[in-house]
């Protein structure tokens, strides 16, 4: 469990679990720390993919199905015990959706709320170009430039050659996983009934969020917060996110 899920602030008596899914190239360090910002009614965990942090020596996941199967097998028992919600940012939004979809279709489990950030709806045509990025042929310098444009990585870390190389490789492998993910809404009925909240940075590139309406019979809400792709790392936005997520969970009738 601890290998795949980081939960530094355990709250066994919490009413709900919030499972967080980090961005491409990311680990658990930021989102797992949200645990200290939430009330005792919510326990926060962050998913850790192979190839980073304490799983550094493990091979990277080869596709989205492998990622979803591992996360599901580790979390299933806990998710059957009490209500849960998902938060994902960017790459993590797509993983959270894929895991939620698998849980619903195979086990009849559904998050009480899905919080997505900095990502297109997975059924949107705007998602398709991501699948055709020539990641295998991309030069390290091109990937590094893209990482720097996105922000979120302290410049001093990129001065360290070993850290920089590992970050580039991790980002490349995560993008490769994302390219194996596909979701065809036409083949399914509306998959969810939970509410979905979409967050975006006001200076980030626009994301197609309207297509989320086709994925749930619940309510959809949209919030633009000041900042770029990594707006959520700004302390003021972090406070807004944690307060808003808490309110949504507490108002869900637990």
From TrEMBL:
Cited SUPFAM superfamilies: alpha/beta-Hydrolases (SSF53474)
The protein's enzyme class: hydrolase
Keywords: Fatty acid biosynthesis, Fatty acid metabolism, Hydrolase, Lipid biosynthesis, Lipid metabolism
Record's catalysed reaction(s): (9Z)-octadecenoyl-[ACP] + H2O = (9Z)-octadecenoate + holo-[ACP] + H(+)
Keyword Cytoplasm listed: no
EC number: 3.1.2.14
GO biological process: one example: medium-chain fatty acid biosynthetic process
GO molecular function annotations of the record: fatty acyl-[ACP] hydrolase activity
Domain Thioesterase residue range list: 17-237
Annotated PANTHER family: S-ACYL FATTY ACID SYNTHASE THIOESTERASE, MEDIUM CHAIN, THIOESTERASE
Family: Belongs to the thioesterase family.
Protein name, per record: S-acyl fatty acid synthase thioesterase, medium chain
Species name: Antrostomus carolinensis
């Amino acid at each position: 469990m601890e290998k795949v899920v980081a939960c530094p602030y355990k709250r066994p008596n919490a009413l709900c679990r919030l499972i967080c899914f980090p961005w491409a190239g990311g680990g658990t360090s930021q989102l797992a720390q949200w645990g200290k910002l939430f009330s005792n009614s919510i326990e926060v965990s962050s998913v850790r993919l192979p190839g980073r942090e304490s799983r550094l020596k493990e091979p990277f996941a080869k596709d989205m199905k492998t990622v979803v199967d591992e996360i599901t097998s580790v979390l299933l028992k806990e998710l059957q015990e009490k209500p849960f919600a998902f938060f994902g940012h960017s790459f993590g939004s797509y993983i959270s959706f894929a895991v939620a979809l698998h849980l619903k279709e195979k086990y009849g489990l559904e998050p009480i709320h899905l919080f997505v950030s900095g990502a297109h709806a997975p059924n949107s045509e705007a998602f398709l170009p991501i699948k055709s990025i020539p990641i295998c042929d991309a030069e390290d310098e091109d990937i590094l430039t893209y990482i720097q444009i996105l922000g979120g990585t302290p410049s001093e870390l990129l001065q360290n050659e070993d850290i920089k190389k590992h970050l580039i490789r991790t980002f490349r492998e995560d993008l490769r996983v994302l390219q194996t993910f596909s979701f065809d809404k036409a083949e399914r009925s509306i998959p969810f009934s939970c509410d979905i909240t979409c967050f975006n940075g006001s200076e980030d590139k626009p994301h197609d969020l309207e297509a989320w309406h086709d994925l749930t019979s619940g309510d959809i809400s949209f919030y633009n917060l000041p900042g770029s792709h990594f707006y959520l790392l700004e302390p003021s936005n972090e406070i807004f996110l944690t307060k808003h997520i808490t309110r949504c969970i507490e108002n869900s009738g637990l």
